[in-house]
Design the sequence.
């Protein structure tokens, strides 16, 4: 191992540098100019995102604890793009509410630390690195959830998240220790070679799985989701539902499809059951939500259930469809959260009936929201349709017809509540409709990128072919 | 021959449609008219250039007109069965390009005057452009499916334009009627296409029509109820054509379609869309001729002949001048169909096919002219009814003369255009089927009679009391009249047989003097009778009507076909089939769906307690969840 092989960690190093730079900036920028920290952070992260797309070597570091493959590299870029959009959408909120309290840099440092944790988590080559990454990605988010300290509900979200997360990671670590006990190693490659389906391994796997299922909000490990989303600042809820979930899905997929492949006959059944439970519970709860953040929380639970349809296949097709779906989901959900963010920031309103008559006063925002919801619901020709369609195709090609049928039934239920919002915006009229307002540049950019993503991703097939090619390495 | 630019011919009107349609509120009416005319002028210029290049310069190789095709695969089912999109250039498609272009351009120009001051002026031109686009697409189609797509598009345009005055209930009803009747016919068309795709394995016109190709040679390979399946497919396709071309018994929509603005009637319901059925049969002519020894073609001949006679009889008794013209159109299209029906394939044998296309061409000119003249008259007196007109020749000299020219042309008086094409049709009928020949001659007489009945009624006879003195129409309206009048005079001298024939070789057609003399004298007889009856106001016509008694009543009520259809649909279908089905749907299908929906919401309410908001409950569920999953999958569900 020579010095240049550190370049395999290029993205981690760069992100860490940004975090340190922001720390220095926080100290050196005078109080009257604190607003500029937002621009600085956006600028630095923008550069980071662009550099991320430069080609990278693949290989292992530290005796296999850290690894980089083309797929991992691609997924880190996906996370970067998602976080960048999120930052664009949060910039106004930060400038208006957070910087005054002298907590601007703090927000970015916490957020980037969490992202750094995710990098390590998905690049992990052994359970130790994985666990460190998992913790690093979770703990700062708990602080972020409680970020609006003046609001009781925000503190509640923070405490709920940290307690639940601690439990989850404890259980997960317990599971990992059992896997270590039966295989004698914490390295993925070595475990894969010796793992066999003894009762202790299966128990270890289930406990470990519970920890990741917690992050993805799979039933019955999902209870924290709605309360935390509702209480946390919208940017943080958005981060949890999009970036955090995406990264966890990705690492779970890698582990299931490689290390835990020998246990496949066990985990397909578990996922089968959990997929059905997650889809139904997510959808049934989403039906009666009035608060948009809770609504999106349950919707994101249901979406996680759909992702499991790709996970259950264990094939290259499954890998490609999951990544493609997650990519589309990131754009769609960010668009939805972006609109909620914009409206909440201007008016403080977060309920569905506040949206009545929105189309008449703010047609552009309503159209963005409609596109996002159509994409989440899977209505052609927007991207979400193709994402779901491919997932279902992958599941059907492995013979899970009943599961696909149940998923389709759930799509129908979800259509109902997504359209409830569309109906409120377009068909209802209201005396207290939210008056017209104009978003600032960052927010508009943030929404524009998501709209382009929603429209283009569905129609631009070379991207899917590219992902499919990348997915070859995994299996 | 370079045909790549031809794609512009349909695309320019499409662009105009999009431009005017999207900005219909923003563009000033004065400008939209010019945009429409300009767009169509481009298409028309390209069409005429294409015709010149094809017929006179580059189209013929070794004495045979070539077929040029440019297409891309649009939807692929199997190696041979795919839907293409493209353009096909052969004699009849080029001829149709010319017809559509000339009539459409004239109608565009005319509409600038006729529709002036109308509220939906821009919308009107947008729809006209949509129609032109669809019609060009139909004409240029390379395969059955493509023609079907544009076939439906012209149907939609026709629907939109008939219902243009959408505040008028009768216009809305007429638009619906036209759409439903033609859609019903198109159901047959679609089934025919699907049968063709299944048994012939292709939709492509060139493959299907090849006389030495497997489809035509192997027509007998599969049969159904005593006929080859290919014949069945052709008959069903002809059903679609009959619907569009208002052949008996699918003709009931055409008279009502006159509710649309008169320029629309001239363009769509006289010259272009209604002859699509004729074009479709001509397009598949080799199949119609060779498969099962022309069984389907015989059906075409008899349907055409009967419709021709049937419509001519009704036309005599109608009092609305546009309806007279509508039935006249139906009758003349019947003429074209019967000409196709009696045609052969090789050399001079193909005279029927040639005559049909020739008549399509000339008829488009003089019938569009008749409609535009009628529009001019209606514009002047604000009524469609003969009883409100009379003695207009003094007020409207140009309309008078052009109407007379068109009437002479349709009556088959030499040397006007209709004489030449009609003569060829009668020659073809005479050589192949005497019964159809007699029908043809009789219809020729009737045509002359009813046409001069309205001519004398409008321009001669006693002057009516007009609210304000009628006056000649503006130049934008009289120019198209004069232009089409000139064409109606000279179009007959085009040596059509050298350009259009089934085998594409061309032949020399000669005037058959005895037959021409018979046809002409019958026509003149009709004119003289009309002169006796209607030149001066007299009671002769009423006395005749009395003498015919109930038969006159049946005829003027169009043999009650509308009533019969209404009885079948409303009384029988609606009451006995649709109503019970609707009830079943409401009660059981909807009931089930609503039940499922209600149960879902109910369930959602029942489980809401799970989300208690207490973090210790969440932790409990988390642990219990993990434990239960572990127990189940370690001890119970193992495999």
Sequence:
């Amino acid at each position: 191992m020579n010095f240049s092989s550190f370049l395999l960690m290029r993205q981690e190093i760069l992100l860490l540098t940004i975090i340190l730079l922001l720390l220095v900036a926080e100290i050196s920028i005078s109080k009257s100019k604190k607003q500029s920290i937002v621009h600085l952070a956006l600028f630095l992260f923008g550069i980071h995102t662009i550099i991320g797309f430069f080609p990278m070597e693949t290989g292992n570091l530290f005796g296999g604890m850290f690894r980089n493959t083309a797929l991992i590299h691609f997924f880190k870029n996906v996370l970067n793009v998602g976080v960048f959009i999120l930052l664009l959408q949060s910039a106004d909120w930060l400038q208006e509410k957070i910087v005054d309290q002298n907590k601007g840099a703090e927000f970015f440092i916490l957020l980037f630390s969490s992202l750094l944790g995710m990098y390590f988590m998905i690049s992990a080559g052994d359970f130790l690195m994985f666990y460190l990454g998992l913790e690093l990605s979770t703990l700062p988010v708990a602080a972020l959830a409680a970020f609006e300290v003046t609001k009781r509900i925000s503190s509640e979200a923070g405490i709920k998240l940290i307690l639940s997360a601690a439990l989850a990671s404890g259980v997960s670590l317990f599971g990992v220790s059992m896997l270590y006990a039966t295989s004698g190693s914490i390295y993925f490659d070595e475990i894969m070679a010796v793992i066999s389906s003894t009762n202790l391994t299966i128990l270890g796997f289930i406990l470990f799985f519970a920890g990741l299922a917690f992050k993805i909000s799979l039933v019955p490990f999902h209870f924290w989701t709605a309360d935390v989303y509702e209480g946390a600042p919208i940017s943080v809820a958005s981060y949890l539902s999009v970036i955090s979930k995406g990264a966890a899905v990705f690492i779970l997929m890698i582990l299931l499809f490689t290390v835990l492949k020998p246990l496949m006959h066990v985990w397909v059944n578990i996922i089968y059951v959990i997929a059905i439970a997650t889809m139904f519970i997510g959808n049934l709860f989403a039906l009666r939500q009035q608060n948009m953040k809770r609504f999106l929380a349950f919707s994101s639970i249901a979406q996680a259930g759909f992702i499991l349809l790709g996970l259950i296949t264990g094939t290259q097709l499954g890998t490609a469809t999951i990544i493609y779906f997650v990519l589309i989901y990131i754009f769609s959900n960010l668009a939805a959260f972006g609109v909620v963010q914009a409206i909440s920031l201007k008016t403080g309103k977060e309920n569905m009936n506040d949206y009545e008559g929105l189309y008449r006063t703010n047609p552009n925002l309503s159209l963005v929201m409609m596109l996002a919801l159509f994409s989440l619901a899977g209505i052609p020709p927007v991207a979400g349709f193709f994402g779901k369609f491919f997932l279902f195709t992958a599941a059907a090609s492995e013979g899970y017809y009943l599961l696909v049928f149940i998923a389709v039934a759930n799509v129908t239920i979800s259509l109902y509540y997504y359209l409830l919002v569309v109906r409120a915006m377009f068909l209802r009229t209201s005396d207290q409709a939210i008056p017209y307002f104009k978003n600032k540049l960052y927010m508009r950019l943030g929404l524009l990128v998501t709209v382009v993503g929603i429209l283009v991703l569905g129609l631009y097939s070379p991207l899917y072919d590219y992902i499919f090619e990348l997915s070859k390495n995994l299996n | 021959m370079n045909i790549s630019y031809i794609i512009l011919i349909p695309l320019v009107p499409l662009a105009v449609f999009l431009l005017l349609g999207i900005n219909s509120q923003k563009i000033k009416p004065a400008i939209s008219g010019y945009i429409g005319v300009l767009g169509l002028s481009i298409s028309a210029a390209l069409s005429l250039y294409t015709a010149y290049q094809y017929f006179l310069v580059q189209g013929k190789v070794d004495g045979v007109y070539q077929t040029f095709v440019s297409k891309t695969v649009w939807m692929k089912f199997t190696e041979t069965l795919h839907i293409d999109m493209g353009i096909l250039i052969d004699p009849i498609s080029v001829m149709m390009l010319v017809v559509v272009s000339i009539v459409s351009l004239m109608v565009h120009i005319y509409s600038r005057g006729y529709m002036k001051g109308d509220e939906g002026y821009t919308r009107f031109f947008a729809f006209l452009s949509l129609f032109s686009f669809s019609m060009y697409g139909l004409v240029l189609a390379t395969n059955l499916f493509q023609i079907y797509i544009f076939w439906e598009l012209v149907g939609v345009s026709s629907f939109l334009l008939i219902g243009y005055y959408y505040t008028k209930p009768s216009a809305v009803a007429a638009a619906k009627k036209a759409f439903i009747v033609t859609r019903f016919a198109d159901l047959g068309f679609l089934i025919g296409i699907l049968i063709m795709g299944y048994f012939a394995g292709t939709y492509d016109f060139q493959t299907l029509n090849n006389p030495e190709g497997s489809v035509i040679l192997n027509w007998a390979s599969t049969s159904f109820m005593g006929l080859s399946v290919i014949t069945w497919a052709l008959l069903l396709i002809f059903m679609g054509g009959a619907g569009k071309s208002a052949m008996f018994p699918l003709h009931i929509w055409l008279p009502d379609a006159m509710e649309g603005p008169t320029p629309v009637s001239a363009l769509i319901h006289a010259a272009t869309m209604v002859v699509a059925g004729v074009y479709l049969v001509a397009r598949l002519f080799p199949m119609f001729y060779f498969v099962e020894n022309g069984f389907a073609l015989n059906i075409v001949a008899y349907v055409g002949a009967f419709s021709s006679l049937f419509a001519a009889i009704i036309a005599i008794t109608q009092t609305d001048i546009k309806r007279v013209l509508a039935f006249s159109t139906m009758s003349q299209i019947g003429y074209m169909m019967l000409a196709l029906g009696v045609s052969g394939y090789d050399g001079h044998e193909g005279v029927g096919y040639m005559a049909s296309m020739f008549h399509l061409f000339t008829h488009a000119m003089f019938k569009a002219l008749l409609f535009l003249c009628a529009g001019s008259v209606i514009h002047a007196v604000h009524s469609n009814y003969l009883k409100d007109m009379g003695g207009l020749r003094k007020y409207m000299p140009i309309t008078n003369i052009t109407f007379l020219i068109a009437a002479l042309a349709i009556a088959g008086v030499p040397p006007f255009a209709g004489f030449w094409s009609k003569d060829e049709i009668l020659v073809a009928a005479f050589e192949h089927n005497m019964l159809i020949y007699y029908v043809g001659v009789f219809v020729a007489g009737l045509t002359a009679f009813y046409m001069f009945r309205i001519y004398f009624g409008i321009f001669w006879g006693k002057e009516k009391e007009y609210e304000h003195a009628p006056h000649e129409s503006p130049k934008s309206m009289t120019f198209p009249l004069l232009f089409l009048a000139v064409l109606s005079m000279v179009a007959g001298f085009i040596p059509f047989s050298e350009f259009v024939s089934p085998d594409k070789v061309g032949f020399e057609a000669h005037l058959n003097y005895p037959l021409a003399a018979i046809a002409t004298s019958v026509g003149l007889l009709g004119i003289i009778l009309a002169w006796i009856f209607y030149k001066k106001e007299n009671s002769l016509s009423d006395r005749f009507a009395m003498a015919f008694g109930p038969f006159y009543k049946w005829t003027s009520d169009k043999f009650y076909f509308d009533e019969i259809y209404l009885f079948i649909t409303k009384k029988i279908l609606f009451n006995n089939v649709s109503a019970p089905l609707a009830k079943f749907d409401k009660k059981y299908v909807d009931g089930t769906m609503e039940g499922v929906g209600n149960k879902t919401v109910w369930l959602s309410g029942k489980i809401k307690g799970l989300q208690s908001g207490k973090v210790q409950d969440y932790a409990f569920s988390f642990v219990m969840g993990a434990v239960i999953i572990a127990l189940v999958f370690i001890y119970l569900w193992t495999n």
